[in-house]
């Protein structure tokens, strides 16, 4: 033993214990009920947007530059399935008025679709017929006004006849050399579809999607941000389930070794997790996956602490060892609570609160030795 270990041991012995203090037991029961209620009725938020660390001004500038350059990095797009590309283009042309209306309403800032660059063959045929009618109505009078020869009039008609059969198709390259077929998705399993890119600060509303699907019933909205958020929610739920199973498994193994003393090992990390979640849900609006991941570390260190204390019956040097273990863990992980990165801050704050609670609760649940009991009785006398 050392002077430091003796000081920590004697200071810790001055704290109350659940074995001898009824008030501590009542307080812990009350805190457990309050924490469990807070966790049960608390809300979690798995939106990946909450982890965005870029300033809003920088994001606005980026969106402005992308719009000015005609680029689109939006995470939302519409999948327009069809049997052949011509039908896809016709369906996009049917959607265009609805998208224009949504843009006027401010639900989307802009959109891009393949039919804007490559109209459907049906539209191109109609346009060709309109040009032919215009030639029939205006070409002769225009050329007569310009004093053009009949040979030039014939050449104009001949060029129109030759161009009537020319149609722009998605597989042709544009003037910049880029492929117009880039918004086309084709696979043996899923079939054929075109991609309609959307730019919006928020997800497309359900009402807007209903309006679009009323025009094209098979239209599919793909929101990559929502997909990642849903994946985070699924992982969070899985972590919660596996943590419950881990506590059950650890309790079963420890009970085989420690019998009636198992509760002194399992309760500190379990109650520390409850208390930590209750505090986080009361203070923070966005308890998410990374808070629950940190509770796994609280479980591991808390179980280790309980095993060491139980094996050595709370020896002087053991209290020094577990105290240093908690302090070094807080220095390694707890300081992440000061990070400006949300993920690291969430993880560090949870570890900071969780390990602090583990040390306090381990003190409350310590085994009262015979010497400590005699010392307490002597002080009472």
Helical run tally: 13
Share of helix among residues? Answer: 55-70%
Task: Spell the H/E element sequence.
Answer: HHHEHEHHEEHEHHHHHH
Mean pLDDT: 81
Beta strand %:
5-15%
How would you sum up this structure in a few lines?
This protein has helices at residues 3-13, 22-41, 56-69, 85-104, 121-145, 150-163, 206-215, 224-258, 262-283, 289-311, 316-332, 342-364, 370-380; strands at residues 76-82, 110-112, 184-187, 191-199, 220-223. By secondary structure, the chain is of the alpha+beta class.
Q: What would you note in describing this structure?
A:
The longest helix has 35 residues, at 224-258. Residues 173-181 and 373-381 have low confidence and may be disordered. A hairpin with a 3-residue loop joins β3 and β4 (191-199). Strands 1, 2, 3, 4 and 5 form a 5-stranded antiparallel β-sheet that branches. The protein contains 13 helices and 5 strands. By secondary structure, it is an alpha+beta fold. The two termini are 29 Å apart.
């Amino acid at each position: 033993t050392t002077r430091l270990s003796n000081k920590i041991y004697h200071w810790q012995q001055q704290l109350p214990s659940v074995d001898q203090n009824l008030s501590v037991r009542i307080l812990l029961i009350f805190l457990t009920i309050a924490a469990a209620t807070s966790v049960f009725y608390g809300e979690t938020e798995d939106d990946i947007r909450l982890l965005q660390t870029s300033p809003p001004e920088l994001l606005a500038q980026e969106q402005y530059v992308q719009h000015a350059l005609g680029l689109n990095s939006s995470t939302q797009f519409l999948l327009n399935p069809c049997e052949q590309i011509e039908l896809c283009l016709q369906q996009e042309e049917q959607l265009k008025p609805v998208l224009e209306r949504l843009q006027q309403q401010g639900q989307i800032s802009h959109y891009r679709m393949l039919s804007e660059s490559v109209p459907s063959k049906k539209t191109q045929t109609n346009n060709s017929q309109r040009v032919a009618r215009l030639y029939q109505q205006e070409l002769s009078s225009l050329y007569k006004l310009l004093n053009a020869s009949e040979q030039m009039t014939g050449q104009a008609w001949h060029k129109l006849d030759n161009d009537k059969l020319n149609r722009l198709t998605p597989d042709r390259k544009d003037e910049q050399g880029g492929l117009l077929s880039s918004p086309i998705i084709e696979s043996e399993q899923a079939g054929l579809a075109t991609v309609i890119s959307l730019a919006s600060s928020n997800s497309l509303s359900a009402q807007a999607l209903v309006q679009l699907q009323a025009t094209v019933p098979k239209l599919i909205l793909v929101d990559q941000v929502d997909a990642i958020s849903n994946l985070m929610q699924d992982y969070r739920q899985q972590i919660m389930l596996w943590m419950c199973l881990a506590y059950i498994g650890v309790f079963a193994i420890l009970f085989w070794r420690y019998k009636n003393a198992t509760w002194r090992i399992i309760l500190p990390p379990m109650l520390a997790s409850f208390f930590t979640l209750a505090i986080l849900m009361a203070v923070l609006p966005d308890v998410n996956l990374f808070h629950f991941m940190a509770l796994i570390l609280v479980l591991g260190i808390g179980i280790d602490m309980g095993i060491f204390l139980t094996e050595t019956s709370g020896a002087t040097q053991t209290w020094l060892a577990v105290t240093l273990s908690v302090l070094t863990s807080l220095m390694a992980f707890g300081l992440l609570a000061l990070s400006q990165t949300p993920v690291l801050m969430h993880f560090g704050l949870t570890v900071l609160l969780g390990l602090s609670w583990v040390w306090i609760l381990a003190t409350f649940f310590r085994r009262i030795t015979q010497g400590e009991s005699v010392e307490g009785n002597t002080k009472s006398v």
